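can u do me a favor
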């Protein structure tokens, strides 16, 4: 068989490892937050090379950003005052919400090329999210690609609302040398001074090519509406190591580009945006996704790690 699944306990974390020997592709997922902590490929010398920031490291660094690929939901980015009103219920939560801190049960491994993590409504506190909506996240190895699938199940007899995404930090030798190619299209940049939307926007008609943004301002984040981008394929290259990542954001409404200045660049698919400074009710947040009564919502994107 080309696929192998195993588990490992390290530094208080339970890790799930899925390998495709034929493609030379491997992922490692921590059950804390169902977070990808490694995406690696075999290079021409037969050695595994990681593509995430601090790839494979479990313990937190002494300083700087401490994650690899944070799973964000049932809201993402930030709430004003770390709380929001949702149809008469108060939601409380910090940056990127609660999924990142949840300890997920062992994944389902019915398909040899996939790991599926589930969180049922009874595992979610009322102050985290007040309605019965379950969460399912699948990491699937398809050829040379990691496909990430989000599914929300609504058990209520009324519509429910969520926003979500992934916050992957991709390793680069240095931000100065990293090359992010963005597809052609009409981008709308949403300004968020102090991490909350101001309502100010800028429309950018971009011919395609190198990212048109100042890398020195990456700590403030670039929030982008992708509705005017027909083929949203982003390409991140690290010339020093020959690593190249192809990020297919087809069907993704927003992207966030961020780094704290360390040797990584986050290119984040987002189904939703942070709060406005003048907070709106939760169900009216910009980009909020609607799950039909007794229905489900399915969204996905893919990451293809390559060598030049």
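np, heres the sequence
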């Amino acid at each position: 068989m080309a696929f192998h699944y195993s588990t490992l306990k390290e530094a208080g974390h339970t890790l799930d490892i899925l390998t495709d020997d034929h493609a030379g592709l491997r992922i490692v997922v921590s059950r804390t937050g169902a977070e990808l902590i490694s995406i690696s490929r075999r290079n021409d010398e037969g050695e595994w090379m990681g593509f995430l920031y601090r790839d494979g490291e479990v313990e937190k660094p002494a300083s700087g950003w401490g994650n690899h690929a944070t799973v964000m939901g049932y809201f993402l980015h930030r709430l004003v005052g770390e709380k929001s009103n949702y149809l008469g219920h108060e939601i409380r939560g910090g940056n990127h919400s609660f999924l990142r801190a949840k300890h997920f049960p062992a994944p389902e491994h019915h398909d040899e090329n996939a790991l599926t993590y589930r969180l049922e409504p009874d595992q979610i506190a009322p102050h985290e999210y007040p309605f019965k909506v379950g969460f399912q996240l699948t990491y699937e190895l398809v050829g040379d690609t990691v496909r990430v699938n989000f599914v929300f199940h609504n058990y209520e007899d009324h519509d429910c609302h969520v926003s979500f995404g992934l916050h992957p930090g991709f390793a680069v030798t240095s931000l100065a040398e990293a090359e992010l190619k963005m597809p052609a299209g009409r981008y709308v940049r949403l300004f968020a001074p102090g991490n909350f939307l101001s309502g100010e926007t800028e429309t950018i008609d971009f011919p395609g090519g190198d990212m048109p943004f100042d890398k020195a301002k990456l700590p403030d984040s670039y929030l982008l509406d992708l509705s005017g981008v027909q083929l949203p394929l982003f390409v991140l290259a690290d010339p020093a190591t020959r690593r190249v990542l192809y990020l297919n954001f087809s069907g993704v409404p927003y992207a966030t580009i961020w780094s704290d200045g360390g040797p990584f660049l986050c290119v984040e698919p987002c189904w939703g945006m942070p709060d406005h400074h003048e907070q709106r009710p939760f169900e009216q947040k910009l980009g909020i996704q609607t799950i039909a009564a007794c229905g489900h919502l399915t969204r996905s994107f893919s990451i293809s790690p390559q060598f030049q």
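The domain at 3-57+67-307 is CATH 2.70.98.10 (Beta-galactosidase; Chain A, domain 5). hope that helps!!
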